[in-house]
Design a protein that fits this description.
homodimer, about 425 residues, alpha+beta, Rossmann fold, 2 domains, six-stranded antiparallel beta sheet, six-stranded mixed beta sheet, 8 helices, ligase (chains A, B), GshA_N (chains A, B), EC 6.3.2.2 (chains A, B), glutamate-cysteine ligase activity (chains A, B), GshA (chains A, B)
């Protein structure tokens, strides 16, 4: 199924699509060279926003759920990419320990876990699931809607304390599908003999969005030069604001002033390109995920006028953790619709390869709102369509494969940024 | 489209499918480890025969045409595999010189060339075509049915004589899609600064089927142990017979005696498994391709009774080259049909990855005949179908993805054999 592309591209983004398609060999070679220098994250999903006048990543997830939402036709692509990834970290790997989130009642999430197990089995691994809940000693079997089940098993450190595994299961690689929002469990510390992927500093206990988007700035500077476009076409302005506490009115003025200056930078760009939309910014927790602690603002004065409910919402993230540091990011409206609903593309990658994607669709949200919220549903991106390779003969802006190729390029720019971010924030950098 | 699987599997092959599916993690890990030791051919297609009681490769092509017959949905898999391959040989590659066959009037073949160019462009390469015709000095543009065209350009050696390229085009890698049946052109000799892929000794000027199937024997010995099956289930008996000349009745008795002894080995196996079919052997040129110089024999006496036309047919291969060396291979009837026509699967690989396949279908041929003949047509294998990963819950022998997975495994066994074959026949082996 190809979602109907309601906005046939025109204006600036049409030009971007043309430039990206024409520069394909140069772009792919550039990525190939970058991946010689930088190690891609093991896996990653990127939320994109396509406003018709710009196309930008707004969230880069290093512990992607939602593999169950990818079209089944594209699974062989995921298996192939996972084979390449595994070979890199542990070519003789036999066992993989997967550590999922503890959303044990969320059958959508459990289907994601089952899908990941299926993918890694096909790469030649025995996959078992570990339970990150502290102190748990019993296995727990969870039923899936298709009648199958998955089993979470208690974790064990080896006798010498150096390795992590399960009963009768010594993995070469430990794959986290848990974003560590609530901190780093002590059982994951000091595992020097096994590959722990992604590394602990990729988890939200340590990671900061502002580091990611700073790295993305760097990536885009180089890429925009390569394809000869204004970097702003691919990059939302952002700034960070630390040590605020909206419940206690701390740092409110600094936040309002940052919002105000970002909005005025946006107005200049909107004027330059003749864009009639009303600029807005997104304020969100610098650490954290799951669509929590996010607000959309069109005027700096809105900050001081926030009501108590809004202040509370902006003060607590996933797992009830307090929010004191935020980033303010240029809002990119999404002009893509599926039927009557607002949609945004999400692109999935394993190692350096795009392996699929879907549209996140929300019937009750506007074009300038966060769609990662209860009520969202998912429509697989049509990477699997006939002529899934770019069609150079097609009229620009009219074919799905050409647009999806562009999405894949921008998602990989965010992937590369995540790679730089991980290098820069590594607490124990390797010296070469 | 899934071709109707007329023979639901039963008997020995059903058991093989079960064993292969159950052993998937072990099989994939085994391949992973083998590819640590051996370099896969750059690309490869394998003709398989599924008789219901055995599944075996009957031809391993190291210069595959027919990429245009793969389903378009699966092209991203080919691109991803090609990325991995290119990265291995020349990570900073910018230019690829592709040297096709000189079938300039065969628009099917030209579509294969165009498809290969499209795949490699997506991996970040500028691709141009060189003309292997000796003495040609002009470019030649050839029209394709879809209105596009491809251009064959004259080859040039660099001023110092060390490199091969085109005007203003210095490639890092030269990819042969020409099987060199008529010998190694001198312009391809002594290219030590560029990657020439596949290597010259993969071409039919040097290559011998008997070396390939000897290597396949070795591979199957190990694999059959891993999955606990009779190696014969996956491996056709073969023997070779050199220095014959059927036109001049030279070596006829030796050939008849080899045929006779192979048929009696087969009869024993047929008896062991209760197979009611009439055994037959295929006699074919030890060097050569394109379905030429092949005959199907059920009785050794047929050799001395060959008529003049048959003798002539068996004496001349592709490009009119004389045939003096043959291999005699156990015939594997194909029990797969599409509509009323006999069909055999062909699996395509790039580097170590299965990237697609199709059924070769021939309306006018029998189950014990060669289908690679004028009148054949091609139906893409449904690797792209829903649940393209093996379905472990399905009833054995009933689902296409499970069968295609088994095909992919056997095709990769032939790929591995080709890798061993290339190592053993390398005229300049690298010493490690």
């Amino acid at each position: 199924m190809v979602p109907h592309l309601v906005t046939a591209l025109n204006g600036p983004l049409l030009d971007l699509e043309k430039k990206i398609l024409a520069a394909t060999p140069a772009i792919e070679r550039w990525f190939r060279m970058e991946w010689q220098e930088h190690t891609p994250p093991f896996y990653c999903s990127v939320d994109l926003r396509n406003s018709g006048f710009k196309l930008a990543p707004v969230d880069t997830n290093l512990f992607p759920g939602g593999f169950n939402n990818l079209s089944a036709e594209m699974l062989p692509l995921a298996v192939q990419a996972a084979m390449a990834a595994i070979e890199k970290y542990c070519p003789d790997a036999k066992n993989l320990l997967l550590l999922p989130e503890l959303h044990t009642k969320n059958t959508f999430y459990l289907q994601n876990v089952a899908r990941l197990m299926q993918i890694f089995r096909q790469t030649g691994l025995h996959v078992r699931l570990g339970n990150l809940t502290e102190g748990v000693t019993e296995s727990q079997t969870l039923e899936l809607p298709d009648g199958t089940s998955v089993t979470l098993e208690p974790l064990q450190r080896s006798a010498n304390g150096r390795r992590l595994g399960l009963e009768n299961f010594d993995p070469c690689t430990i794959l986290l599908n848990n974003d560590l929002s609530s901190g780093i469990p002590s059982i994951l510390e000091n595992l020097n003999e096994q590959n722990l992927l992604p590394p602990l500093h990729a988890g939200w206990a340590v990671r900061r969005k502002s580091n990611h988007f700073a790295a993305y700035d760097e990536v885009i500077k180089k890429f925009a030069k390569l394809v000869d476009v204004d970097p702003w076409m691919l990059n939302p302005f952002f700034t960070k604001c630390h040590q605020i506490n909206l419940q206690e009115h701390i740092g409110e003025e600094a936040l309002a002033s940052s919002v105000s200056s970002l909005l005025s930078k946006m107005r200049k760009k909107y004027k330059e390109y003749g864009i009639k939309e009303k600029p807005f910014v997104i304020v969100k927790a610098d650490a954290g995920t799951c669509g929590m602690g996010i607000m959309s603002i069109t005027d700096a004065n809105q900050i001081k006028d926030l009501n108590l409910k809004q202040r509370n919402k902006m003060s607590v993230g996933k797992d009830g953790l307090p929010i004191h540091d935020v980033i303010i990011q240029e809002g990119v409206p999404t002009f893509e619709h599926i039927n009557e609903s607002v949609a945004e593309p999400v692109v999935y990658m394993i190692d350096r390869y795009v392996v699929g994607g879907f549209y996140r669709v929300h019937a009750d949200r506007g074009i300038n709102e966060n769609l990662n919220a209860p009520g969202a549903h998912y429509v697989p991106l049509a990477f699997a369509q006939q002529h899934a390779l770019p069609d150079l003969l097609a009229k620009p802006g009219t074919t799905a494969p050409n647009r999806f190729y562009m999405y894949g390029v921008v998602a990989r720019l965010a992937l590369l940024a995540a790679s730089l971010e991980m290098e820069k924030t590594d607490p124990n950098p390797e010296i070469y």
